């Protein structure tokens, strides 16, 4: 029987899943405007969307036929078993979905902050996130053993209320740490204060995910308190629905926020696009300064094209070229040319101004 709580669960979870799906579609479209292939972070966010959809669908099934939103004490024995089975399954969808979003964001940061390899701090966070994922998947699976004791009367083999709280707290700590990562990079950029604020505000939209995580933590603590109280039968069902409502919101909102920084190709003059170009230029300069590029080979490579600098720097590029930093696609302060073989930075010559030999037609749009 549908209740106001179950209807709220269905409507809210479906709404946020729809927004997350639109966000992923826009991300793929934006990616296709820039390149013809997807990166690792794109596949990770697609996988996160699938598991988030699994979570929402499971919650909707629970609201429709599993007794979600109905006082637990009013359920029959068979209905109570179905309720607990659905609750057990949805925990896995949640853990995997939020972990995949974190990994997607970290991979995006890694490509943004370095031209050749991920910074060490990114690898540290990737390892921590994978460790978090594996740890709580195992903890959830073995929270009560044998397995069927999750939906029948058995003595718990672990202190699962504490595990629920620990998973929520560590999830929030990871989100805050990952959200703060770009701040140090933005602070070092030579851009205006308004541009810095614009970039930080875009990345800062992830704060909504932390708000959703905090709300979920509050209801998780409520669920733990109800589990050990004398009013278990009357309040357990309501506490569960509140927790899984925010689980669905958090998973979908995380996907939504993770996609926002990827829309730069859709806005040619946005602060975010300037930030991404600046970060690529800086990382390219660090990784390939003073090293001429070699032909990358392959059937799709174009003939070698000479890059002519104003000063003493010069190099070569092959493959499809792209200019970062030059507003007219030909030159600019701090410009970096990216080709099929890698990056070339001419920043040493005349305060970073380099010139592309227009006779070979290397000019590309920004």
Automatic annotation (TrEMBL):
Principal location: membrane
Domain spans labelled Rhodopsin: 26-268
Subcellular location: Membrane
Signal peptide: none
Keywords associated with the record: Membrane, Transmembrane, Transmembrane helix
A GO-annotated cellular component: membrane
Membrane-protein topology: Multi-pass membrane protein
Residues passing through the membrane, by range: 12-30, 42-72, 92-109, 121-142, 162-185, 197-219, 239-264
Key word Isomerase present: no
InterPro entries tied to this protein: Rhodopsin_dom_fungi, SAT4-like
Family stated for the protein in its record: Belongs to the SAT4 family.
Name this polypeptide is given: Rhodopsin domain-containing protein
